[in-house]
Amino acid sequence: MNNFGFKSYNSWDKLTKVLVGNVFPKGFFEDYHDKKVADVMTKVNEETREDLDYFCKVLTESYGVKVYRMPDTCVTKNKRYESVTEFVEAEGYIPKPFNTPRDDQIIFGEKLITGMTDNIFRKWNKKQVDNHNIFKESEYAPWAGCDDYIDLADENEELNIVKEATANSSNKGFVISWPSIMRTGRDIMIDLHDFNGPTKALVPWFKNFNEKYGYNFRINTTVMGGHTDAVLALVRPGLLISHTNVNKYEETYPGWDVIKINRKHNDHTSAWNEFRISEKDKWRLSKKRPVADYWIAGEEQNDALHKFIDLYMHPSVGACWETNFDVNCLSVNENTVIASGPAKELEDKLGEHKVDVVTCNMRHRFFWDGGLHCATSDLEREGDCEDYFPDRGDQGIEFGRLWGNNELRR
Question: What SS3 class is residue 74?
Fold first, then answer.
């Protein structure tokens, strides 16, 4: 059997292998004709490359983690592009770079699971033939062809759930929201927010997965609003950090210490956010001005930039005020987390629990809407499957909505 060597039952055991994201090729935006766009986007892209490189260096040199990288490419299903001008002249939207691998795969036990019908992603994994050679040989997924990699979109895969889920649907796209799943040893928590339709298919799917591979995962569900890791991080057994409006932890993680953290960047983006909300509907109806769900400091009035992003880069940006970046951190072991920006409150509160916070600043996290948890996929951690809630028995629990009627999750 040809196995890559995946292993991860939680988010806190010692990290030994990790996949880290990437952005566009170096110099990708430099030749755009409008300097108000070219200069800012070049700065965002190059500084993000620097930040990710430094993050990888810290993981490798300070913690001995084996780092794998996503390719820094701009590709469509049939072609590779090296500059933004080349792309804009030939295509529409610039595809999202491979900066958030957490969105695309997850480890359950000793199996890596993906479930995307996107043919670019499937070509990268060598599950679809790359007839146009859009990837270089060194850029393909390092586990391509390995037996411990399960592609839920593969028609030949016994555990395929894409075929059944899309059989009677006009929309053949299929994306499972892996960041909406929390792993706590035996317990799997799946967020069934209304836009996570494909993710719901995992609830019955786990029965077959357990039977085929001899696992005993217990499946719990909640309604938390999607992309759970934007508001919740499990630091170690008995300790979690959370955005302020997510509650009911006495039910979902009974007996655990809960550290509540506010979003610091609200101080910086509040005025821009209010303007965006007041103008959003007008922009969308008229199509004369863009809808900006990101933030780049000092560029709030750069209309040329906002128009460019709205026309060509909308898939690449999220709504940055939805994510609590202090919470969207990466644990390298039970006593150390890496945060994506200066986080004094997080440092102080975790320090009370003897947990160190290391900062690897992601200067443009408000543009990409991704912290270091989003930018990684933990491929291997030490430790085995533990049952932290043995009183639950074999049946999972439906926990329902985890914030109050008068509160907003984000």
Answer: strand
pLDDT at 285: 56
**Angle, CA of 392, 332 and 323, to the nearest 5°:** 75
- Do the bridges between strand 232-236 and strand 239-243 make them parallel or antiparallel, or are there none, so unpaired? antiparallel
Q: How far is CA 187 from the centre of its chain?
A: 20
Closest CA to 338 of 328, 330, 327: 330
Just give the CATH number of 15-401. 3.75.10.10
Please state whether beta strands 336-339 and 330-333 pair in parallel, antiparallel, or not at all (unpaired): antiparallel
Find, among 401, 389, 400, 3, the residue nearest to 217 by Cα: 389
How does strand 187-191 pair with strand 181-184? antiparallel
Angle at 395 between CA 390 and CA 400, to 5 degrees: 100
Tens digit of each residue's pLDDT (9 = 90 or more) over 66-124? 999 999 999 998 999 999 988 887 777 788 999 999 999 999 999 999 988 888 999 99
Rounded Cα gap, residues 362 and 127, in angstroms: 32
Q: How many CB atoms lie within 10 A of CB 12?
A: 25
Kindly list the distances between the CA atom of residue 273 and the CA atoms of 36, 187, 304, 404, in Å, as whole numbers in the listed order.
22, 37, 19, 23
Count of alpha carbons within 13 Å of 204, Cβ hemisphere only? 6
Of the candidates 58, 69, 104, which has an alpha carbon nearest to the alpha carbon of residue 338? Answer: 58
Q: Exposed e or buried b for every residue in 356-377, given b needs 16+ CB within 10 A?
A: ebbbbebebbbbbbbbbbbbbb
Q: Is 319:223 a contact under the CB 8 Å cutoff?
A: no
Distance CA 122, CA 77 (A): 10
For the chain, which residues make up each domain, given as ranges? 15-401
Which residue in 111, 109, 17, 4 sits closest to 385, CA to CA?
A: 109
Helix (H) / strand (E) containing 380: strand 376-381
Residue with more model confidence, 285 or 386: 386
What pLDDT score does 311 carry? 82
Note the Cα 244 to chain centre separation in Å.
21
Q: Is residue 202 a contact partner of residue 159, using CB atoms and an 8 Å limit?
A: no
Residue 182 in this model has a pLDDT that exceeds 80: yes
